[in-house]
Amino acid sequence: MSGRYDLAIFDCDGVLVDSERIANEVFATKLRELGLELTLEEMFERFVGHSMAHCLRLVGEMLGRAPPADLLEDLQRRTFDAFRLGLQPVPGVVEALDAIQPRLATGVASSGDHDKLRMTLGTTGLWPRFEGRIFSAVDVPRAKPHPDVYLHAARALGAAPGRCVVIEDTPIGVAAGVAAGMTVLGFARHTPAPRLLAAGAERSFGSMSGLPGLLLRA
Hints:
It contains 11 helices and 6 strands.
């Protein structure tokens, strides 16, 4: 137990693994092949933080027709190939976890499915740090911004929501943590801090070097 928290629950993409830019560049390329031109900034605005099921529904709305049947399979293959070539942990997160994990229980709650989590956390060497404490939105009825995956993680790990802290990097994820009755810290690396605070984050921080102090203070 550490101060006000019994459990820290980390989002994965953009918080633990530096995957957002890689994944959205691949996704944007695929959408261009379908006739949809979106900048990387537009990709972040429309898709980041949502479940893949939601993203596919949005693509269908933008196309005005059902997406190709093989879209998800092809996108996952291309994305995983790109991850194998260049995916890294978020800068500073390994050092932050070295300070946090001996003193505070941790888990992961992601909008990504288990195959993606195994790929990203495995490729970056972070899987052993969280093995057995990794939760996906596919395991619950509703994805973020609903609180289901965070409440699922807390129940599974025996923590009361009010004693949990969530580390998120998108307004959608922040909203999910707040809806779960948890404290949320907003990692303002790709999303401006005011947007995370407006979504309900208690505080924001711009570098992983600052996270241990926020979590472990008395």
